[in-house]
Amino acid sequence: MLPTDEQHFFPHKLLLSKLVYLSYNFLTRANKENTTMEFRGVANQRIARISAHLQPSFTPQMEAKNSVMGRENCRAKGGNPGFKVAILGAAGGIGQSLSLLMKMNPLVSLLHLYDVVNAPGVTADVSHMDTGAVVRGFLGPKQLEDALTGMDLVIIPAGVPRKPGMTRDDLFKINAGIVKTLCEGVAKCCPNAIVNLISNPVNSTVAIAAEVFKKAGTYDPKKLLGVTTLDVARANTFVAEVLGLDPREVDVPVVGGHAGVTILPLLSQVKPPSSFTASEIEYLTNRIQNGGTEVVEAKAGAGSATLSMAYAAAKFADACLRGLRGDANVVECSFVASQVTELAFFATKVRLGRTGAEEVYQLGPLNEYERVGLEKAKEELAGSIQKGVDFIRK
Ligand SMILES: NC(=O)c1ccc[n+]([C@@H]2O[C@H](COP(=O)([O-])OP(=O)(O)OC[C@H]3O[C@@H](n4cnc5c(N)ncnc54)[C@H](O)[C@@H]3O)[C@@H](O)[C@H]2O)c1
Ligand SMILES: O=C(O)C[C@H](O)C(=O)O
């Protein structure tokens, strides 16, 4: 059997890096010991070149050229055929775990990690994982455009999280501006990319993103998806606990939005078909609607859900990539442009395909409890969506 590209190139890479390391040590020592300016100048140039091999990103000289250098050094032979994915906010609580999970996704060939802080560390760390995706890091607004250029999927967990006592809407003041800036970058550099928006309040930030894209003339409603997968993961978990089932066997549609009463689990549509007592319905609905607050309180000031969210975001991103690849029957809940209700955006099951959310499913039959919940959800959602629209239009 012929060796794979990676096996074939490995001995050569090992020798090269040993050589680079030895020369680096030699030149550093020589530079310290040598007193003539001429030698020092030449040695410094060599050290800079060798450092670039050891730490291909973020040395001050290279910062501006970071992505270009990455391309020159691109390990194309070791890279997967696959999709190009950017994570904006990659150094955060969600961002770091999500970066790790996306580096493990075999559908990803190139992973761009962008943040305004600590992107170099996260990039160096994740890039040592021996999986197929090539990783490049981007730090600060000057590198945003390089981070976004050519991307197929952009995942946005950038922004501040809640502390106990706060609502998601309390994050609007800071996160609205962050989402606006990042989406302006998307509109300019990868207008055809699918966007997975995680930053809260999702019920408003999705509307903000849509308005930014409309203003730029790049809006494709199918490609803008608010991530509500964590609500579904929680619903599956809590329902499975009540039913005594494995959560992987349970499927609970969660519709509406992503905050308090706007999170509406449709327990009458649970698979496998199950019946619940009135108190089970009350308990489950409350717990699913307040799952985020449960984590915020347990973390006691240290942020909100990060690990379960990274898991949920990675699951949703994988579904988007499978859709892009052309897989059939990829269905997930998401907060998208919708005609299911009178609201401009609403979360329901959607079918993901080559162009994004290609089909938005109807709600299906609701019981009386769910109909009452739907009215409450719509009332709150209407205000949150309008707040997002106004942020850009006014
Ligand atoms: N949709 C959901 O289900 C869901 C679930 C959990 C958390 N969230 C939200 O996700 C967001 C992030 O949560 P976290 O716990 O990871 O927070 P965090 O503070 O740990 O990380 C946020 C990261 O965003 C970065 N950031 C800030 N401004 C930026 C900018 N302009 N460009 C790029 N990066 C920027 C920060 O430097 C930080 O690294 C919060 O708004 C939170 O409420 C959403
Ligand atoms: O609750 C939060 O603030 C974070 C997130 O929206 C969640 O549902 O965990």
UniProtKB/TrEMBL annotation:
It catalyses: (S)-malate + NAD(+) = oxaloacetate + NADH + H(+). GO terms for biological process: malate metabolic process; tricarboxylic acid cycle. SUPFAM superfamilies: LDH C-terminal domain-like, NAD(P)-binding Rossmann-fold domains. The keyword NAD applies. Residues 84-226 form the Lactate/malate dehydrogenase N-terminal domain. Keywords: NAD, Oxidoreductase, Tricarboxylic acid cycle. Residues 228-391 form the Lactate/malate dehydrogenase C-terminal domain. The keyword Oxidoreductase applies. It is an enzyme of class 1 (oxidoreductase). Gene3D superfamilies: Lactate dehydrogenase/glycoside hydrolase, family 4, C-terminal, NAD(P)-binding Rossmann-like Domain. Pfam families: Ldh_1_C, Ldh_1_N. GO terms for molecular function: L-malate dehydrogenase (NAD+) activity. GO terms for cellular component: chloroplast. InterPro entries: Lactate/malate_DH_C, Lactate/malate_DH_N, Lactate_DH/Glyco_Ohase_4_C, Malate_DH_AS, Malate_DH_type1, NAD(P)-bd_dom_sf. Its EC number is 1.1.1.37. Signal peptide: none annotated. Belongs to the LDH/MDH superfamily. MDH type 1 family. Homodimer. This is Malate dehydrogenase. It comes from Eutrema salsugineum (Saltwater cress).
